[in-house]
Structure formats: structure tokens, C-alpha cells
Design goal:
Elements (H helix, E strand, L loop, with lengths): L19 H25 L7 H23 L4 H4 L4 H30 L11 H22 L7 H9 L2 H14 L6 H28 L2 E12 L2 E8 L12 E7 L7 E5 L10 E6 L16 E8 L11 E7 L3 H13 L5 E8 L8 H5 L5 E7 L9 E2 L4 H8 L7 E5 L2 H13 L7 E4 L4
Bound molecules: flavin-adenine dinucleotide (FAD).
Length: 447
């Protein structure tokens, strides 16, 4: 994190929790926790295996269990854990570690079989202690496969999330298997590490699911809902019992609307309001699926529970002289928050927005964009322009970027948010234009 020497704004609200130093400390802590059962076993337990394979199998199980226990923590949305990396990075890490943990735990019985010189463990004729481990592994395998492919099996996202919570059972089964199966947890030191890991995972799970919904969210009331563009609506919310902490421009929150006669669901939405705007929070939402298609039915007086702010897609982390913003459709929301922040803090740095839409009625915040201060220019790019249109047409191609931002490309930082195909194409164009990856920041609207 850098100090805000160019801007007249404020530092990121996540403050010290978003620093590089804190991020490195967390990575070291993660590695130490995964290694803890192994180290405890090395110190306290004499080898009981015939070969290297037995030792390896045991080591994989110990580290694999620690990885699984930490999955509950990675999933818990602790702000101090996500702030240095961003919520999307933590989510991706959570997914990758599920694969790593699964791989280790699948390798565990294979190594033990090599040590025993027998395939006994893979028969149905094993004791209940071994079967606990098998059940846990099977559940984990199914969960990982389901997580990877649930988009294709047409399961509702909310149903999938409830099922995913059941994964805490894998941690409990893994613990019971290790505890009772004998060979792994003999010494007090290793047992203590395992008990701490289990208690930590269960504690975080209970906090997240039973306590947090009551104490960790902020209750708001819908004050107003208005159409912001074609199929896009802006909700204005006012706090009921204390406002959510101030956000960095570009951050998002999880929003749960409570509407009579409708199931409440939690969805992530950017907070497009400026951090300088106190008292009210706005969300600008496009109709694009089961839940968002019903957004226009929201009424003043409906309740909303907010959790956040989260994420790291924000200009406040980059103390640079030029900003190139590229947005597509409703992907304008985090960028609008940053533009409002520059405007409201009278920041004099130069910004250019390339804003792509299919057609004119889809342009969100059109009047407000036209009224931004002179240091911020806006170029609209329309796929289906009207006959009288004199601006850019088609897509945000390499040529469009070069034509409009050519003089700032060697120094600017780019902030990109839009539909997935657009983002992929723009990222390729930016790479072709020689913009280094550390100057490109983007947010995908999927977790
Ligand atoms: C960080 C972030 C910020 C966002 N900001 C905005 C915004 O400002 N305005 C806006 O219109 N949209 C925003 N979105 C997208 C918005 O969250 C999805 O469009 C919405 O959740 C889709 O729900 P649905 O039921 O309408 O669509 P569906 O068709 O049911 O879901 C489409 C896909 O959206 C994802 N999704 C659905 N529900 C959730 C959920 N509860 N949590 C996470 N992902 C989910 C899944 O990948 C799902 O496959 C944002 C998304 C993210 C991740």
C-alpha cells in the first residue's frame, strides 16, 4: 500500500490489514499451520512404517487434514484475511487448496498400500475406523467434482452453497479416522495439533453460520428504487441500526434482501456510491438471472442485510498519476465508485473512461458521467450505435484503446470490469499494447 501523495483523498479504509507485510505474514502463517502436524509428528512420534512410502502416506494425511481444516477459515470472509489479497483471490486459493488437499488424501492410502505391499485398504473388508476415512474422502471427492462442474448440472447457486456447508463433515470424519485408526495420532503433541485444528474449523463454522448472521451484518431499509438504464435498477438503502464501515471506492458487499413472499438470497454487489457519501448506500443491479430478474419488484420499506465491504479492486491502493478505466455494461459500478471518489475528493489526477455498451439505452449513469470534472474524460463505445452517433463504435479493441489513451499508456494503471468475453479480449489487447500485468487491475462479476 502506498501513501496518497497524488490524491487529495484518504487512505484505504482497510488500512494496515491491506498491507503487503500483513499479506506475507498470513502466507507464512498458513504454511506454518499446514506444516504443524508434520513437525509435531517428526518431533514426537517414532517411525512405525516399513518404508519411505508409509512415512510419506502419513505425512500427506497430516498436512492434508490441516489444509481441509483451514478451508473453513478461508471461506469465512474474515476481512482481515482477505484485505491484502482481495476476496476473489482468497476464493480462488480456497478452490485450489481443495484440489491440493484432495490429491494428498487420495495419495495417502496409495502410499500406505505400497508400504504394506497389499491392496487390503482398497477392499470393502476394512474396519469402521478405516471406513470413516473412506467416507470422508468420497465426500470430499464428490464435493470437489460438484464444485468444478455445478454450472453444467443446472443446480441453483443457493442450493449448491447449502450443500457446500456440509463439507465440515469431511473435517470431522477425517479427524475421527485419524484419531481412531491408530498409526497417525499416538503422541500427545500431534493429538493436540489435531484437536486445535478441528476445534478451529468447527468454531469458525459455527461462528459463520450461527453467530455471524445475527451480529456480523448491517440492517438497512430500502428507501428508493429507480430505473438507472434499460434492465438496470438502483436501490438506495438507509441504515437501521448503524451503518456498514466506510468502503474503499470499488469494493463490494453481500446483500440479502428480505421481501415479503420471496425467498431471501445473498448476492454480491458493488457499492457504486462514493465513499465520501455518508448515510446512504446504493446498489445498481442489472437483471441477468433468477434473483436479479426480480430486482424491480423490490419496494421501499423492504429490509436488506449487508455484509462488507470486501474486495481489493480499488484505485486507493495505487498511487499513480493516470488512470485508464475500461467498463462494459453494468461493470461500470465499481468504476463509477472510483470516478465518484476522484470527483468528491477533488483529486486532480487524470482519468479516462472507455465505456462499452450494446446500445444507448443500456448506458448506466449517463448524465453523471457527462458532468464529471474536466480531468476525467469519458468515451462511449457502442456496438449498435444510432445513426446520429459520432463516438466510437464496435468493441473496445486494441485500436480503440490506443487511439484514445495512447499518451497515457506507458504510465497509467488500468481498471477493467465487464462481461467475461469483453474482459478476456481487453486483457489480451492490453498485453499486446505492452502494459505490464502489475498495472492492470480487474474484477470479474463471478466468485
Ligand atoms: C464482486 C462482485 C460484484 C458484483 N457487482 C455487481 C453489480 O454492481 N451489479 C450487478 O448487477 N451485478 C453485480 N455482480 C454480479 C451479481 O452478483 C450476479 O449477477 C448475481 O449474483 C446473479 O444472480 P442471479 O440469481 O440473478 O443469476 P443466476 O443466473 O442465478 O446466477 C448466475 C451466476 O452468478 C453467480 N452467482 C449467483 N448467485 C451468486 C451468489 N449469491 N454469490 C456469488 N455468485 C453468485 C454464479 O456464478 C451463477 O452461476 C457482482 C458480482 C461480484 C462477484
Amino acid at each position: 500500500m502506498t501513501s496518497a501523495t497524488h490524491s487529495q483523498g484518504t487512505l484505504p479504509v482497510n488500512g494496515k490489514w491491506s498491507s503487503r507485510c500483513w499479506g506475507i505474514s498470513l502466507v507464512c502463517l498458513y504454511i506454518a499451520i499446514v506444516a504443524a502436524p508434520l513437525i509435531a509428528a517428526l518431533i514426537h512420534e517414532p517411525s512405525t512404517f516399513r518404508s519411505f512410502w508409509g512415512e510419506l502416506g502419513k505425512g500427506l494425511a497430516l498436512a492434508g487434514f490441516a489444509i481441509l481444516a483451514l478451508q473453513a477459515v478461508l471461506n469465512a470472509r474474515f476481512r482481515i484475511l482477505e484485505a491484502p489479497f482481495g476476496y476473489d483471490v482468497v476464493t480462488r486459493f480456497h478452490r485450489s487448496m481443495a484440489l491440493v488437499g484432495l490429491g494428498m488424501l487420495i495419495a495417502h492410502p496409495i502410499c500406505l498400500a505400497l508400504d504394506m505391499g497389499s491392496l487390503f485398504l482398497f477392499t470393502l473388508d476394512t474396519s469402521w475406523r478405516i471406513n470413516l476415512g473412506k467416507a470422508g474422502l468420497l465426500l470430499l471427492l464428490l464435493a470437489v467434482l460438484f464444485a468444478m462442474f455445478f454450472h453444467y448440472v443446472r443446480v441453483n447457486y443457493q442450493t449448491w452453497r447449502v450443500m457446500h456447508k456440509g463439507m465440515i463433515a469431511v473435517v470431522a470424519l477425517g479427524f475421527a479416522h485419524a484419531w481412531f485408526a491408530g498409526a497417525d495420532l499416538n503422541a500427545f503433541g500431534v493429538q493436540a495439533v489435531f484437536v486445535i485444528l478441528l476445534a478451529g474449523a468447527l468454531g469458525v463454522f459455527v461462528y459463520r453460520n450461527a453467530v455471524h448472521p445475527w451480529v456480523g451484518r448491517y440492517r438497512y431499509t430500502v428507501e428508493d428504487i429507480e430505473e438507472a438504464a434499460r434492465d438496470v435498477y438502483t436501490l438506495t438503502l438507509k441504515p437501521d441500526n448503524g451503518a456498514m464501515p466506510s468502503h474503499d471506492a470499488g469494493q463490494f458487499a453481500f446483500v440479502t434482501l428480505k421481501r415479503p413472499g420471496r425467498r431471501s438470497e445473498e448476492h454480491p454487489f458493488t457499492i457504486p456510491s462514493s465513499p465520501a457519501e455518508r448515510g446512504r448506500v446504493r446498489f445498481t443491479i442489472k437483471r441477468s438471472g433468477d434473483f436479479t430478474n426480480t430486482i424491480a419488484d423490490t419496494k421501499p420499506g423492504d429490509l436488506a442485510y449487508l455484509e462488507g465491504p470486501l474486495g481489493r479492486f480499488s484505485l486507493v491502493h495505487h498511487d499513480v498519476p493516470y488512470f485508464l478505466f475500461i467498463a462494459g455494461g453494468v461493470g461500470i459500478t465499481p468504476i463509477m465508485s472510483m470516478l465518484r471518489y476522484l470527483r468528491d475528493t477533488q483529486d486532480q489526477r487524470r482519468g479516462l473512461l472507455l465505456y462499452a455498451n450494446n446500445a444507448e439505452p443500456g448506458i448506466v449513469f449517463r448524465e453523471e458521467l457527462a458532468a464529471l470534472p474536466r480531468n476525467i474524460s469519458v468515451v462511449h463505445v457502442l456496438k449498435e450505435p444510432p445513426e446520429t452517433w459520432e463516438g466510437e463504435t464496435g468493441f473496445v479493441t486494441q485500436e480503440v484503446i490506443r487511439r484514445n489513451a495512447g499518451d497515457m499508456l506507458d504510465r497509467c494503471h488500468v481498471f477493467l470490469c465487464g462481461p467475461p468475453p469483453m474482459m478476456d479480449a481487453v486483457l489480451e489487447s492490453l498485453a499486446n499494447l505492452g502494459i505490464e500485468p502489475d498495472r492492470i487491475h480487474f474484477e470479474r462479476f463471478s466468485l
